[in-house]
Design a protein that fits this description.
alpha+beta
Amino acid sequence: MIERTQGMNGWDVVTRGLALTASLAALGAGPGHAGSEPHQAPNPARIVSQVSAAVAAAANSRDVALIGKHFAEDAVLMPPNAAIVRGRAGIEEFWKGLITGGLGEVFIASMGSGASGDVGYDAGTYHISMSPPGAAPVVDKGKYLTVLRRGKDGRWRITYDIWNSDPPAPQAPAK
């Protein structure tokens, strides 16, 4: 059975405090659940969307190691206009480059998530600001899809993460 949760209409802005709470819950709440009420059955669909929120919170706090903890050792990152990044260490390096390159705020809005057995997904929209040194600030908006797997320790970790920009790619000058 696939369990799903539907995101809110409009921007479900993930603030640092709210996302940090989700991050702490996802990392410390024990196997199979993230911050569930004591007598409430865990909702895997909600948990997988909390992992995406936790990554955004870790990015906003500039914590590359915490970002990495949300990815499986063999995870694959597929960023726009860039090569595929493989493995947790490579993903941490990618995010380190974004942060040192002027990463501003990361906001996400989950449109929906689901889980069946030990596999889950979260899909939504994002808004990222960048202020590269010596260049004009840039804002990117788009959509993402994240696939997660529950490990033997009960924790949900990202195995595939892809996002695509809504604005068209810059065109090369005509020759």
